[in-house]
Amino acid sequence: MSINSFGHLLRLSTWGESHGPAIGCMIDGCPPGIEIDEAAIQQYLDLRRPGTGKNVSPRQEPDQIKILSGVYEGKTTGTAIGMMIENVDARSKDYPADAPYRPGHADYGYDEKYGFRDPRGGGRASARETAMRVAGGAVARLIIPEVEIEARVLAIGGEQDETKWESLLDSLRTEGDSVGALVECVARGVPAGWGAPVYAKLDAMLASAMMSIPAVKGVEIGEGMAAAALKGSENADPMRAGADAPHFEANHAGGISGGISTGQDIVVRVAFKPTSSIRKPVHSIRKDGSEADVVTKGRHDPCVGIRGAPVTEAMMALVLADQYLLHRAQCG
Ligand SMILES: Cc1cc2nc3c(=O)[nH]c(=O)nc-3n(C[C@H](O)[C@H](O)[C@H](O)COP(=O)(O)O)c2cc1C
Ligand SMILES: C=C(O[C@@H]1CC(C(=O)O)=C[C@@H](OP(=O)(O)O)[C@H]1O)C(=O)O
Question: Per UniProt, which keywords does this protein have (predicted)?
Answer without folding.
Answer: Amino-acid biosynthesis, Aromatic amino acid biosynthesis, FAD, Flavoprotein, FMN, Lyase, NADP
